[in-house]
Every structure is written in C-alpha cells, then in structure tokens.
Amino acid sequence: MFEYIYRSTAPIEPIFHSHMHYEVYYFHEGKCNYLIGDQIYNLAPGDLILMYGMTLHCPKVDPAVPYIRSIVHFDPAILRPYLELPQAVPVMQPFEQFKNHRLCLREKEKEEFERILVVMHGHQQRGDKVGAGRLLLAFVDMLHFIYDQCLQSLREPREFPSDKEMTVQNVINLLEDTYAEDDLHMEKLQNALHLSKSYLAKIFKEVTGVTIFEYVYRKRINEAKILFLLQPDLTVTDACFRLGFKHLAHFSRLFKQHVGLSPERYKKQLKEERSDAEGGKL
Q1: 2-154 domain in CATH 2.60.120?
Q2: What residue ranges carry the coiled-coil annotation (predicted)?
Q3: Is 36 left (phi over 0), alpha (psi -120 to 50) or beta?
Q4: With CB atoms counted within 10 Å of each terminal CB, which end of the chain scores lower, N or C?
Q5: Cβ neighbours of 184 (radius 10 Å)
Q6: DSSP H or E stretch at residue 282
Q7: Which CATH number fits domain 163-272: 3.40.50.1110, 1.10.10.60, 3.30.530.20, 3.30.70.20?
Q8: Which pTM does this prediction carry?
C-alpha cells in the first residue's frame, strides 16, 4: 500500500481516526493544531510529522485560511527489497522507536525536503510504470532524509507522554511477537503485563481507537496479503493456520471484510498481475 498526496487543499472533518498504515505528514501552510494521542502539536510551515497510524489522531484547522499539506501513506512491506540490501540504513527505525514524532524543518532542511516532494510529484504525474518506480525510489530517499534528521533523537531515551500510552506501547510490542499464536488471549496479556484485562482493553481502545483483537486481526490480514505476495504457492489454508486462525471460514470472512476480496480471489488477482507484468517484458 502506497499513496502520495501532494499539496492537498481539500477540506477535512475534525474527526479522530486511526489506520493500519504509517504516515509522513508535511505542513506547508495554514493554521493547524494536530492532536496525536496525548500530544497537541501547534504546527508551523516546515513541520514534518511521522505517524504510526494506530494512534488516534486528528487535525484541527482554522477554515478561514488555506490549509495545505502533503501526505504519504505507506505499508512498510513495500520497503523490504531496500531494507534487505547490504549496508541498508534502518529507515523505519524512527517510526518504530518514536511511533509519532515531529521534526521542525527550517531553512536548508526545509528547502531540501520540499525539493523531494516536488520530485515525487513529478514522477507521480507521469502515470506509468517508470514513474511509479522512480516515485518509490524518491520516497526511499525521503526516508533516508528523515532518518538523518532523527539521528540525534534516536540516540536519546524516549519519553512517553503518559503512563497510559507507554502501557499501550507495551501491549503493541507484545502483540508484534505473539499475534500469530493460535492461543492468544487476554489472560496471556494480563499475565505478561501484570495489569487487568479490563484495564488493558479500555486504554488500548482509548489510545488507538480499535480493540486489541481488532488490531490483531488487522495485523494478521495484512500479513496474509504479504505472504500471498511473497509466496505465490502458499495455499489459503496454510496461510490461515500459520497466522493463528483456527477456522478457515473465519479467516476468509475477515479477509474479505478488510480487503474487499476473498483470499482465493486476491491470490488470483496477484497471479494475473504477475502474468501481465511478465507479458509486458521485452
């Protein structure tokens, strides 16, 4: 999943929301207070926000002045070919370590970042495969720029806005290691974190906007999509049980609910796309 929106002026509703993908948000101009979790950012032109989408967030803007921003939504899975290269820079570290973080770009750094945005927009406007490929490469360059800007902060101990958010982060860290276990249940989280099930459920929903098991199921379905992409011969049944589902019907129902296609149809679509791509090669 990759979406780039350059210098959007579209009006927005001030509604708190969350999503599974990561986000790079750049503020060009306007008057905006951006609420992310427990933090309120009073934005100035040149402010760049790295966002872990599962945290509730909402921009509150002054409609009397133009509100201009550029946004990238992306799934880290698209970066795997670049992250696996020899001597690859861990460009996802700022997102993974900070979850949500603001950079205040000014002068030369602001000019450099805005040049990257313009280059990405130019590639996007081509509307062909070469443009799409160069757009993704320019985005990887953007992530290197962001990593470079975050180096000093990455070396400093992270301070959480509140005990509540720190606890939710601990839940997410635990789920990252256990989401595919078929015996995952609230008692396991309760025992691991030494907090009651009801408290964990309450604050997780409060901070992220989804329940713990909605998060787990979204994570599993996203991983299923990645497995089908990287392992074309993997059966739907094998993916179902590998990701912790006990019943194939449950997996298929959730997959269609989140993706819009059954897992079988999704695999078929991927196969057709690969055939079309291979057929277009010289």
Answers
A1: yes
A2: none
A3: beta
A4: C
A5: 17
A6: none
A7: 1.10.10.60
A8: 0.58
